[in-house]
Amino acid sequence: MEPIGAKAKILVVDDNAENRALARAALQDEGYEVVLATNGEDGIRAFEAEHPDCVLLDVRMPSPDGFAVCARIRVLPGGADTPIVFLTALRDVDTFERALRAGGDDFLTKPIRPTELVVRVQAALRLRQMSSELREHYDLVRRQRDDMMRLQLQKERLTAFVVHDLKNPLNSMDLHAQILARDPGVPPHLQESVQSIRDGARSLLRLILNLLDISKSEEGRLVPRPSDVDVEALIGEVLDAYDVNARNAGVVLKRAIEARALRADPDLLRRILENLLDNAIRHAPAGTEVRVTAESREGAIEIRIADGGPGVSPDMRERIFERFVQLEAGERVVTRAGRGLGLTFCKLAVDAHGGSIWVEDGNPGAVFCVKLPNG
Asked: What is the CATH number of the domain that holds 124?
């Protein structure tokens, strides 16, 4: 089946060579003719000379920027009816509103995803072919879509504000707890309370960061920053940090680390380990152990965290990584799921590394396995 608007001409105006190349490859694969322009003035001249059927227009370019280019195209012959799709890395309400006011028909955020780009271009070309009656219906749907997009961007802004505003008092709480923990005048029985304050602050901070990174993942912005990681040292630091939690739960932490080096984002990897270890300690019965192993396998590092808890049934081992899932067995709720978003974050962070995460039967208990490519 021929794609919508095949053989149509698409003008791509972007000052970034990689973005131009990606857009051209995606569109040419679908049968479109692609015209490239490296700045706003070249884009306007190309529009006058080539009479494209659709324009992909970057927002942030040296003067004139995308908004100014859009306004100038709209007054050119044929410019009023040519669909214009803005491309921008600025995912915020103000940019979205400016794009609409400038006369944009659609709004696509970077990094560009080829499949989404093609779908948006097809929708823009389909609109151009519609009758006036159908276009009225489309305009209504588009206004509703714009309202939804506006609400989504406002939600993301609110989430960012909330995360930022909560991080500061939590960090302050943890700092003051550390000061008390180092004070020799604090009685031993109060030292346990101080440690509980630190544990609670760390748990809340981890939940907040999970929420932020899940939001980033939905926007395609959860991108690892890899560096060389000492696997043994990192796992050791995480185990040491959770030693008090484990002792309070009556659980013994064991390790067997054979892998040494890994190329990964150290912050994301640390938080993957923290979430999985916290999950294991909470579900391990008193008097049992939680065991962490790491070994090299076929160009990858496999990390396994095993506990002696209730385990996860085979039919629920995929769902456990979904948000806020509780696993049910008839009328009885088995609280083997993560507390909130921890396991969801782990899945997204591992996926972002190009790895995989799954659950195996520990007989008894569960074994959470993370496999990350080492290269």
From this structure: 3.40.50.2300
